[in-house]
Amino acid sequence: MLTGSYRKRLDADLNRWVGEGLVSLESATTIRRSLAQEGGFRLPALLGLFGGLLIAASVSAFVAANWEEMPRLLKLGLILLGLAGSFAVAARLESRGSTGGADAAATCGTLIFAAGVALVGQMYHLPTDWPGGALLIAVGALVAAFLLRSNGALVIALVAICAWAGGRWDESNGQIGYGFWLAFLPALWLAWSRRNRLVHHIAVLAALLWFVTLPGQTIFMHFDYGLLAYGLALSVLFVVLGAFALDRAGPELLTACLPWGLISLVLILNLELGRILDMHQARPGTAMSLNYFAYALAVPALTGLALLGRERRFVWPLALALLLSLMVPVVFWSGGVVALVGKIAIATLVLVIAIALVLAGAGGGVRRLTIAGSALFAIAVLILLWQTIGTLLDQSLFFLAAGAILIGLASGARRLLAKFAKPMEASP
Predict the structure, then answer these.
(1) How far apart are CA 178 and CA 418, in angstroms?
(2) 389 near 395, Cβ under 8 Å?
(3) For 111, which of 45, 56, 203, 234 could close a Cys bridge (C-beta 3.0–4.6 Å)?
């Protein structure tokens, strides 16, 4: 799916290319027509979706207001009538080619089903088991998403699956919930073929949340800094999946891994930088088995990206940034983390990672990488100004050396690019 920012940039590029004679006006018109057919601003679908949500809220409010006075059969009848009516409208709109309206009606029906599950449980005084109810809602929403190809129903199913898995995880005091995948894999299979960014992001977040719960409740209650290494490895894995999908024109769902991996990567790296400058927080943490598990996933994936990536000016700087990110916990585990050398090493790694992310974003035209690298660099500089490396003189020397190195690299890169540009201009 093409994002709005990409469409605007492409439209501006088409105007420029037509003006420079690189693309004919007819070709530019054909490209714009193709983009308009593929997507755009679907006002009827949006209005239909909001209308369906309001109708579902209206039905729920009416039933709640008169719930005690209604006979049980009437209550069941209203729930079934709402379900049948919504799904019948969805099927009819789908047959007429109104996919947006059909999605809105199916979403409304799925919400009525979810409310019906809660109301029936209350009506017949069923045992309180809200995770079980969430699983029932997830199954119903998955059926609706499959039969009616509803993106809204699929989003509800993914949220319900997360609620069910989270409830069971809490009840079991943080034991690993492998049953999550039994419900999640069918939803992932449906999301894989959809071209809806909200569905993609919710599916990626659902998988990410399961990995977050792996350490269990105990280690969260008694926080261990080894979790930061686990989080870094997971972040690297998600960034690799998203970058590989972008580079190889892979599944659109995997591209949604990139922004969430970058967000967590920037946050954790800044946490690592901030705590190594604090003598009370500069502790290595425990090298848990989960660290090795996460690194065993991240390192081969990163190697595959570096070796199989097509656009080297995008892949190689990104691979360097991610490799250095995995090296940050190693500095903590080296034993000299409290010393000045350890502080300089972490600060240098974080700044180099930020620059490499910006280079990867500029080389591949991926704005998210440029923004992430710039944010990491800016926050890191603020942290370094807030918490000094040694004395203020040491900090001043650090910034001076880093700035001089960057200026030298910029000068060398400029000469190298100019050297390669001359043969290209001379060639016919």
Answers:
(1) 55
(2) yes
(3) 56
**Residue with structure tokens 């440029």?**
370
- Other C-beta atoms lying within 10 Å of the C-beta of residue 181: 14
What is the tally of helices (H) and strands (E) in the chain?
18, 0
Cα(168)–Cα(179) distance, integer angstroms: 10
C-alpha separations of 376 from 187, 234, 244, 268, 325 in Å: 34, 18, 22, 10, 12
C-beta of residue 253 within 8 angstroms of C-beta of residue 238:
no
What is the residue type of 363?
Answer: G
Q: Per residue in 337-364, pLDDT tens?
A: 556 677 778 888 888 999 899 888 888 8
Cα–Cα dist 420/416, whole Å:
6
CB-CB contact of 242 with 259 (8 Å) = yes
CB-based contacts of 414, cutoff 8 Å, min separation 6: none
Quick: pLDDT tens for 260-302: 999 999 999 988 888 777 666 666 666 778 888 999 999 999 9
Query: Would residue 391 be called left, alpha or beta, if left means φ above 0 and alpha means ψ between -120 and 50 degrees?
Result: beta
What value does the CA radius of gyration of the chain take, rounded to a whole number of Å?
Answer: 27
Q: Return the number of other C-beta atoms located less than 10 Å from residue 384's C-beta.
A: 21
Nearest-CA neighbor of 317 among 369, 376, 368, 379? 369
389, 344 contact by CB (below 8 A)? yes
Q: SS3 for 176?
A: coil
3-state secondary structure 142-159: HHHHHHHCCHHHHHHHHH
